[in-house]
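Protocol step 4 of 5: obtain the predicted structure for the target chain.
Materials: sequence only (see below). No template structures provided, no constraints applied. The aim of this step is simply to have a reference model before the mutagenesis design in step 5. Sequence pasted as it appears in the construct record:
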Amino acid sequence: MTPASTAEELAAEVEREQATSAFKVTFAPDVARVARLRLITRASLRRWAVAEPLAEDVVLSVSELVTNAIQHGSGRVALRVRFDASELRVEVSDESAVPAKRREAAVDDISGRGLILVDALATSWGVRQQGRTTWCVFHVPVAGQGDHLCEVVTERTANA
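Step 4 output (structure tokens):
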């Protein structure tokens, strides 16, 4: 498979998933991809009109879960983000059967706080598929019922 066909297949898969307010990206584990996945996530959240406070929490959680899968998992990594009217779900999978575990980092540790952050930001999180998938869910409150709001924004273009 050539790099061009791989990119085309990835773009087609992302496009299909976006039609249903979801996307999935599968990639070789490389820490350099984390920034790109944050950008893809942020662009999708903007397209879905997810308000900034919630979008920031989701992007940070994506960054932490993907980094964990790259550093502690094995094999290819998959990120899936799905949005509906009441919740936003993030799932990160790899080929390792060792489940992600929250741990307490020492004060002078430079890492080890990812799942603590996810636990603090998300409504809930957990592990499924015999440890291969770590997920988190964010509640999307109805406007006026919480700190994080999802607002539908209609944009007008100059050509409209």
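Step 4 remarks: The beta strands are 22-27, 77-83, 87-93, 124-128, 133-139. The helical segments are 3-18, 33-47, 52-72, 114-121.
Proceed to step 5.
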